[in-house]
Amino acid sequence: MIDNSIRKLVCYGLEKGLFTPRDEIYVTNRLLEILKLDSFDCSESYTDVNLEEALKELTDFAVSNGIAEDGMVYRDLFDTKLMGALMPRPSEVTDKFYELYKISPKDATDYFYKLSCDSDYIRRYRVEKDIKWVTPTEYGDLDITINLSKPEKDPKAIAAAKSAPQSGYPKCMLCRECEGYAGRVNFPARQNHRVIPIKINNTDWCFQYSPYVYYNEHCIVFNAKHTPMAINRDTFKKLLSFVSQFPHYFVGSNADLPIVGGSILSHDHFQGGNYTFAMAKAPIEYPLEFDGFGDVKAGIVKWPMSVIRTSSENPDRLIELADKILTAWREYTDESAFIFAHLNGEPHNTITPIARKRDGVYELDLVLRNNITTPEHPLGVFHPHAELHHIKKENIGLIEVMGLAVLPARLKTEMTELEKAMLQNRDISNDEMLKKHADWANEIKQKYTDINKDNISGIIRNEIGLVFAKVLEHAGVYKRTPEGIAAFKKFTASVK
């Protein structure tokens, strides 16, 4: 039985081109070593192998024979080790990537993305569990995702992680030292992970995909050195350098301050991919002119957050203008709009930048951010306010800024139970799980005259999307009111 399971995985690797027939015996022997077996006898040929099932069979064997511990974390560590035995060396992957790049950048990324999926680095069968839909709003179609692909750690693994010795290697989950790393209970295994070295703005960076692919070909571009996040003139150079090399991809950076930045501020990195977000589709609502930049098209984008879009065939001109806007914004205070550049020596203003190439023209979107807090809004004034936390409490980073909500897994169960409660007209104000949704549920009941079992799921999903639109409005430093637009234009007029 176990020989058949091994053979299935070998046939899978051959079928997906992870290795050539010349390496078949070698790969088989590597798997035997990992499974602590001395012999093998199976020549069966398998096609269309279900990878999830094949890995489960092998991992079940390892658990039952004391080779691996049971539990999600330990199983992930073990099946990644199995997949590592099928993988080509990093240099082989890089060589093939750049061979294909000579044909076209898209050919190169198509190959690398497929490899990242076939290797199980991107666990497709988990990503498919994510709940996704689109909600039409005045700002365009917003993408909504309830994230179910990132597994929750089991209690045993959490306890083990607490007592595990602290290691400074790799320094973080974005470091290039992760490539091929075996992992540990508090750090994911990466034997099946490959990274492409690239040059952007004449510096050493690396290119990989996100294992959670929140959107099509969701990639991460990160500094080859473990260096902190920063938004500066060089950031704009690097973003535009990347899209000049990969014009079918957008790329953007999280901001460099807590609250408005991403989850990893310790390692300079960007996120990109082959996807067009609602923000990219949004038109310029108010044209702008900047002194000395008559050759650059610019304007305020029709978007709930405060976005200045600049475009030109000359990327150097966008870099010049973006640097001026960033410099001005870093020091800009307008008490009437509750914008404070510094308080008690702490900086509050920064920018979330996004670059793309559209019809041969470079575009750079600059999203104005401010992370000031108050006693009323301790998590941030320009952050989802408390009345929206029942849906979204987490930071609004790059992905959300562009119009994709990544919502917590808890919502799957909560929405199912909320639907039942609303159909039964049940009071949820004392329900431990649902009471945080009570006011929202009452608003929904008042809004819709006919709520029934056939339409309630669609109604709830639509209303979640509308909540996300409000989340983005809360995160916008200038509101889309006459007063807000006037204050926004007052800032742009100050850019010299």
Task: Give the SSE map.
Layout: H1 2-15, H2 24-34, H3 51-64, H4 72-84, H5 90-103, H6 105-118, H7 124-127, E1 131-137, E2 140-146, H8 155-163, E3 196-200, E4 203-209, E5 219-223, H9 233-245, E6 250-252, E7 269-273, H10 278-281, E8 284-288, E9 297-301, E10 307-312, H11 315-330, E11 342-343, E12 346-347, E13 349-358, E14 361-370, H12 398-401, E15 404-407, H13 410-423, H14 438-447, H15 456-475, H16 482-494
Parallel strand pairs: 2-15
Antiparallel strand pairs: 1-2, 3-4, 4-5, 5-7, 6-7, 6-13, 8-9, 9-10, 10-14, 11-12, 13-14
Helix pairs in contact: 1-2, 1-3, 3-4, 5-6, 9-11
What are the salient characteristics of this protein?
16 helices, three-stranded mixed sheet, HIT family, subunit A, ten-stranded antiparallel sheet, alpha+beta, globular, 496 residues, single chain
Please summarize what this structure is.
By secondary structure, the protein is α+β, with helices and mostly antiparallel strands. 38% of the residues lie in helices and 17% in strands.
Strand composition percent: 15-25%
Low-confidence stretches: none
Q: What's the CATH C level of one domain?
A: Alpha Beta
Please give the CATH architecture of one domain: 2-Layer Sandwich
Mean residue pLDDT: 95
- Sheet with most strands: 10 strands, antiparallel
> Rg to the nearest angstrom?
25 Å
Which class do the helix and strand fractions yield? alpha+beta
Strand order of the largest sheet: 3-4-5-7-6-13-14-10-9-8
Ends apart, CA distance between termini? 73 Å
Percent range of helical residues: 25-40%
* Shape by Cα distribution: globular
Number of strands: 15
Tally of DSSP helical segments: 16
Q: Kindly report the CATH topology of one domain.
A: HIT family, subunit A
